[in-house]
What we know:
A: alpha+beta; Hypothetical protein af1432; 5-stranded antiparallel sheet; 17 helices; B: mainly alpha; Serine Threonine Protein Phosphatase 5, Tetratricopeptide repeat; 5 strands; about 65% helix
Amino acid sequence: MVSEIPVKSREPDKTALQKRQLLEKGKSLVSQLCATIRTAQIYDRSNSVYVRQAESLLGLIQGLLEGTGEFLLKSKEGYLFLNDTRLRFSFDGYVAGKFIVEMFRKLQFECIFFSPPLIREELDEFVFILAHADAEGEDPFENLQKRVASSNIEHLRVEKFAPGSDLGDESEPEGQKKQAKKRFFKTLLVAQETMESAKSKRSINTVKSKRAIQFLIDQLIKDEGKLMSLTAIKSFDEYTFAHSVNVCILSVALGTRLGLSKGELSELGFAALFHDVGKVRLPIELLNKPGELTEEEWVEVKKHPIFGVKALLSRRSIDRFCTRAMVVSFEHHLKLDHTGYPETSAQRDLDLFSRIVTIVDVYDSMTSGRVYARTPLTPDEALRRMLQKQGKSFDAALLKVFINMLGIYPVGSVVILDTGEIGVVMEANPAELSCPEVAIIADRFGKREKVETVDLTKLDEKTGKHTRTILRTIDPHGYKLEVARYIY
Amino acid sequence: MPELDFETEFEQIDAVELDSVKKLIQLLSNSLKSVLIYPSNNPLPKEFRTKLYKGLSEFLDAHDELNLEIGPHQLLYGGKAVYQDGEKEGGMAYILHKDGVRELTFLKGLEFEEIEDLLEVMHTCFKSPDSEEDLVTLLWEKDLNHVKHLVVDDLLDVDVPSAEDVPDDWDFDRLFHSEVSFGEEGEVLPKIDHPDLSQKYREDQLKQLLKQLKEFSPEEVGSIQRALELNCRYRSLDQFLNILVEIFLTEEDLSEFGQMMDTVDRVLVTLISMADFHSASKIVQELNQFVKTIKGNGGQTDSLTNEKAQRATGVIDKAGDRENLRRMSQVINDREIMDLSSADAYLSSLHWNSIPAVVSMLRDLKTFPARRMVCEVLTEKAKDHLELLGEGISDPNWYVVRNVAKIIGTIGAEDGARLLRQIVKHRDRRVRKEVVASLIRIRGNRAGNLLVSFLDDEDKGIRILASRGLAQRKEQEALPVLENIINDDQFKYYPPEEKKSMLESFAGIAGDEGISFLVKTVRRRSWLKRDKHNETRIFAIGALSQIDSREAEEAISQLAKKRNKVVRQTCQNALRRIESRRMREGQPAGDT
């Protein structure tokens, strides 16, 4: 006789319900922890705004402690876990989740233990230590732990990364960057190889592409900044392939913010990588033509979405990846209001993935400036122009999520700061869109010394105001400024 | 005091552990086999899974993790083999190893659903080892928290271009002249001359933009949530098919069109092999729609259109050819598919010329529900093409013939009798019985005549069924035959239920016209086997009572005066029954 499956399986409804409730509580905890820490970065302990946030946080923690006893919030491989349960965030909770994961990563600890009976004073101390912890010191975790130990905190504790658990070689920023580059270039090679097959009408082997996309997704989940910054480099030789990889990365990053599952992200990445596969059937002279296209040439170019479907159709078998990619290839120039191409007889809603790829494709094309010989736009200018077309060419809500992801000064933007310094945006800050990480490439006197990366969220201790803010962006192409040098 | 033999003790512990791992891997293998062998509704696979889950959980409680190295044909635990593939290629180790998995690790906290997911992935790769399904991709997508896999991949063996390749010759001075004011040390910067870039204006603009971007209205949140919900139910194949038809319509290159048709053809075969009849039916439906659209395009049929229509029709025809439908039957049999609605949809979408191939499915399908589904499809499909069922009529398998006979009866068209004529003498009584049932439902004289011929069938049940059917149809042609049977000297020896049926059928067809014949039958004398003869008389009186007319009642009243006690009593009983029946119906006695 086979015994019943233990309680932790998905079989009993009651357990599933408890798990769902725990998940919801966990997500609320993360959102509230993020809000409280961010409030603590601005206000002092007695401020009513902070008090309200802290009370809510305490209520949530105590609720969880009553239900589960001691519990832990853990970060692993870019995910957050409440005990053993992974917390999945959709687009509305994504920023908070990412904020907490980043905090764990920067301060180099793996988990926070919560145990009863936690009191407000302890929580306040703990939150303020986290809010003002120095992530740039020699050993952020040791500093943090010292501060926790020297306070009166008994029911909260942090634990460092377990050996070999999460960071490994990639814990160092350089290691992460190296990994990101390798993954980027490997995908580039795979895209090139696959499209060459499509060009010579050989059957496309999709396994390699799927694997490469998996690596990209894993990298994006762990640390999207490094990979996304590579998309800002527009000077790779093979434009079509680099563009395809950029669209793939940015689409998957947008999908991650929408809370898509790994399977869905994988399909989205595949569809995005091959959205322009039809271009391999266009004459190379047409793609590389230096001037404006003639009417006849445009007619040819407009065939590439259909060529894409045909190229993917030539595979030996058609799986869900291919059918989705064919849909996206066909629809990515249709526009939301169907005023694009190719002409269709039926009005139907565009696939979610097509709407995502449309946004990303246009953004990358506008900022690359290689498509049909247009002049490249600065990233913020491209976004501004896209906003003017929201609801017509682009899904307005998705475009908003996209801009929230890139920031209003996306990676690669060259900016003038109110200090007179010139900088290149290195990484967006989803929590504060106007305060990205910037590499200062020249000081206010025009001197170009060692490049220093600064976080624009930093506040002046005396004034409480930002030490640097962005005045505006400039067009690097006008000054032959190659931003790739700084990003790469 | 003897020294402890640590090594021996260690080896003993190791051996116990090794043994328990071997048992667990055997359970894993059995669980996988059970999923492959048994249908999804069979309880055995679940029992195996539960045992495996329980065993693994116990092991992990004690050891925290179970790490398996994957060799080309074996699994190793701590460097020792715990599983070996069989001689045939395609064992558990082979499947894992071929896609690059080199380690599989189960971690403490393993959940039952993770076991199910792992088995599902392995099952997918097992059932179609030659497909492009990638085990690593499938495992990765499942995103299992407590089952980790290590993959050998050359992904990170790639040369990354160095940063030196990027030029650095930017027009530094011009930038500072035109965009950034040079300032003396200590001077407040920047000196912005553009009025629009004043601090106040800039901050207001920025605040407005940030507010617009950061806050999502309920409509925007709703629109994203709706899009995500739709995405969960999204079937890219449906959308892809719509697109494909769009492309078919506009395609002007016949060779490209032909290539696409070849692909559709291949896709159909794949879908059928994968039991995805829903998608296959959608494809055929879309092709049908496409042919209809281009043919009905204002009557303009140029050679390109004709050729395209012809090629698309060819694909539809191939979708319903014998080879494809044999494949479909095999899939239904192998997987013991219970939900046949999508198979029904696929067969329904095929052209009428597929009828003979669909009929042959009646021979290939093993289960009754599957054959019933095919019968239902054929009943619709063959309405205007009865002649195409002919192949089934001459099939050597009695059950095929019976099913075809049933289909013909359900359709009920007069022409059906011509087909059924070929099998009125079929050797199997089950077929003949079905033929009688079908003939009863078919309109026209031809069916009636054929039904009459069954009064002579060697099987009593069939004769009875035929006589009742004739009565139901009020088949006048049957009266002389029935009279002959009843008048025959041997009739009294017929089994009672048959005698009853024949007499009642006669009464049912003849009505008042048959009263004198039935009275004559009652009055007829017989010196031999009087009890058998009396039995005939009783049934004849019963038949008279069923005519339900004043004349019949009168005739029974007259017979009730007979000296024969049996006849008299039977008639009295019959009259009482008539009276009570009339009372129930609210009619005065003696009135019809």
